[in-house]
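Reopening this ticket.

The earlier resolution said the output was attached, but the attachment link was broken on my side. Pasting everything inline this time so it's all in one place.
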Amino acid sequence: MSRSLLDLTAAQLGAAVREGRTPASELLTASLDRLAETHAGADGLNAIVHRVGTDDAAVQPLAMGPLAGVPVAIKDNFATRTLPTTCGSKILEGWVSPYEATAVRKLREAGAVVIGKANMDEFAMGSSTEHSAFGPSRNPHDRRRAPGGSSGGSAAAVAAGIAPIALGSETGGSVRQPAAFCGIVGVKPTYGRVSRYGLVAFASSLDCVAPFGRTVDDAALATEIISGHDPLDATSAAHAVPAMRVGPGPLAGLVVGVPKEYFPDSLMPEVRATCDRALEALRAQGATIREVSLPHTPYAIPVYYIIAPAEASANLARFDGVRYGMRLEADGVQAMYGATRAAGFGAEVTRRILLGTYVLSAGYYDAYYRKAQEVRALIARDFTDVFASGVHVLFTPTTPTPAFALGAISDPYEMYLSDIYTVTANLAGIPGISLPIGRVNGLPVGGQLLAPAFDEPTMFRAAYALEEALGAEAHR
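Inline output:
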């Protein structure tokens, strides 16, 4: 495969195409060759589930923007007109959207070439990409291990060098967690910063469009491109898009908060040591490190797993075999609904629909859903109070452990706990980024930076500096 695609950043590749030094066709061929190479054999990555051919991609109009000719992978829950959108589910097998997601359109308008749709946990419900009708994806660093989820296919595609940028979605950490597992960068923008139009809804008050990159600069560039108000999305915020490619520099005057709740005694010692080295690197760049408290953090997982399934049960009611997707014939419309949904949805999606329907039902709504929303407000207030105290960003581990083995976690609650450090940002609506900070037992470990709502530039400022300070140490 062409070394340029493996070694250059997305911005460098785009510049090479715009300046005529590299044909876009060469990048596309290199990407598709790499895809074929990494997906061969029984232990293939299985990161891309719907892919373009060279001829198909060649007819995509090429804009000479910052991503001119740059191959990108798109998670399978984004509407695209040129490839199926199946959300990793049997119930949408073969469905092709008549319209395109805003974020996908913005990438195309910047010159990006979509090379395929990435594998995912069905309807984005999972933390390992094992809950997919297409089978699990594999981690490029150890193919016996999970790449994380639900955007595991997108993360694996970037980590394997198939594309320098990929699009994922975040509801409770579905980009930051796989970014940590795969040793790349994943960004969750502020809720409302990026249009959700064309993203198949899981939990509407939590879902975010979120990009992956091999480097902080790739991720910042992608975030900047897809951001902005969109009248097609009622939750899209009318905030100006600031420059996010701020580049590395000293951190004098920056206060980094370290929430004690994210560093419990039970945290894996090797992960803690890796985080300590990252904090020292931030301190060496001029940042002030301060311990802080987010006291309602212990309630985040139960709150999330009430609110998200409740919203999912309502959103997934539209998949009924009537308007689109699969349909099983049965005796009467109610029987058809039941048969279609029973055959079309997998076990994890079914579990969450049942849980969500229960917490919204008469007699339980106040005890569960309403109470969860009240506690969610307290979690958000914790962040507001900490940032108001003079803290500019927070630093935490992204995940409690490195990537776990495929099939190693069978208990749903244990799997849910892998998102323990990420769900809070979704509940509070604030931006977050995960970037590589080291390795434990040969596997990548991610560090997470969180910032106030709509202050992605400060978050990226700290991330650029940390990436530069750690250098090769982040990958050892």
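Reporter confirms the inline version is readable. The CA atoms of residues 248 and 445 lie 21 Å apart. The mean pLDDT is 95.
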